[in-house]
Amino acid sequence: MDSKPGTPDKLVVENATKYYETQSGPLHAIDNFSMSVKDGEFACVVGPSGCGKTTLLWSVAGLHPLTDGKVLLDGEPVTGPHPQIGMVFQEANLLPWRNLTKNIRFPFEIKKVPPDEAHIEHLLDRVGLTGFGNKFPRELSGGMQQRAAIVRALSFNPSVLLMDEPFGALDAFTRDEMNLLVEEIWLETRKTILFITHNITEAVFLSDRVFVMSSRPGRLAKIFTITLPRPRTLDMLATKEVFDLVNEIKAEIEHRPPANEDASGQVSPVADEVG
Question: DSSP states of 45-101 as a string?
Answer without folding.
Answer: EE-STTSSHHHHHHHHTTSS--SEEEEEETTEE--S--TTEEEE-SS----TTS-HH
